[in-house]
Structure formats: structure tokens, C-alpha cells
Amino acid sequence: MDIQRISAFSLNGEGGNPAGVVLVDVLPDPDVMQQVAAEVGYSETVFAAPQGDGFRTRYFAPDAEVPFCGHATIALGAALGAANGAAVYPLILNDTEVSVEAIETVDGWAATLQSPMTSYRAVEPELTSRALNLFAWQEGDLDPDLPMTRANGGAEHLIITLNSRELLRDMEYDFDAGRALMQEFGLVTINLIWRDTDGTVHSRNPFAGHGVYEDPATGAAAAALAGYLRDSGKSVSAFNVYQGVDMGAPSFLAVSPMEGKGAPVRINGATRRIQPS
Question: What is 119-268's CATH superfamily?
Fold first, then answer.
């Protein structure tokens, strides 16, 4: 089995979020894909096989399958572009369909994904208090203009907006407690953000529920955030996300919400190939 290792949402040829990419004629059994993902050890490995005019696509974290993964979709776009040329590729997921456009640049392959439909909803009081306790934060540490919310852009995320860059930089939590909380409430990541004055978003994403302390670039969380900002009336503008900086893996995501309540979100990112060790 040929496993490509591609870092998505890289910044100036560095950083990004590594994903395993497996292009096959027929998808392996789920237990085989799960084993491969665990052995690769990245936050996600994506598997894709031709189906009709598109590709049947599934995503696996080291511990479990996930419904959608943004950075792995960007990595898949780069792999499909290298194999088949620049084009828009339809992707058939377990519960929906998305697409990824492979874009050839002077620096290599980039890609733009179109996410699943988006949604958001209120957070349960118990989840609010336990999430704050997990990070040892208080209500006064949060940005009052963007209340804590559940948001979905193909996967479920808890969005917590902080009122200072320092709180985001100094984030830490107990891994086992975070894992238990995220699994209990069905969260793929907790998207911790701070918004700069120009609208730029700085983000960190604990991913303990699926076996990873922190994700360096999270396209699904960015899509969920963009849908929340648009549908809550906070902002319909495109914005940029810097993630992974505080963990030494700088990443850049260009995020553009599509028009209409619940509409998908387009996210663009560069990629870089990871050489085998």
C-alpha cells in the first residue's frame, strides 16, 4: 500500500498539518484502514478510491474514523492533482459529498476544499463549565462578542473565543481529562481562537478525543467557525487563520464562507511533501 505523506496548510514551505494519503482502486476494509492510520500516526489519514465521476473517501484518526477532515482533504487534493492533473474532484463521504480543487502553483500543489453544510447551536451548561475547568479559565477570559458555541462544518467542534493572545499561547490541559470530555460530548476538536483587530484568527485545536494532543491545522474547524460567524450575523467576510504557531508547526488557512444560511465554506491551503525518513 502506497502511503503518501503530505503536509497541508503549510506556510512559506514549512509547517502545516501532516496527513497520510492512500489512493487505491478499491477501499480496504475499515479495520485495515484503521490499522494503517494508527501506524502512520498523523492526526488523520485519508483513503480514496474512484467511484463514478468522483472518489469514495474516508478519514481515519489514530483511534477512530472521523466524518470529515479539512487538512487531509487538502492533502488529498494535492495527491489527486499530482496523479491526474489540476481539476475539481468530487468526493463521496460517508454521509455527504464535498469537493476539492487541485491547483498547481510555482511552489507545488495547493488545493481548495468545499466543506459540507455548516450549522451551530448553543452549548450545554455542563459542557461550558467543564471546558473552562479543563483549561483553568474563567468567564472573564472569554471574548463576550463571540459566546462559546457548538459548530459543525462536517465534524462537531466546540468554539471558545479568548480575549487575549497570551491565553491562547499559554494553553495547556490534561490529556486524559480532555479525551474523556471530548468523547462524552461528541467533539472532534475544541477550537480555541483569538481574533486580531483586522479579523485575522489565531487558533489552537486540542484533539484528544481521537488520540492527538493538538492539531496544527484544522480545516473542518475553520469551516465550522466561518459558518457560525456568517449565520449568527457576526461576519460574512473571508478571513485568514494562523494555527500551529505555538506548537512549532506554522499553518495558514484562507477561509471564504459561501452565501446562504448553512452553506458550505471554501478553504484554501498550500501543501508540501514530507520526505520518508
Answer: Diaminopimelate Epimerase; Chain A, domain 1 (3.10.310.10)
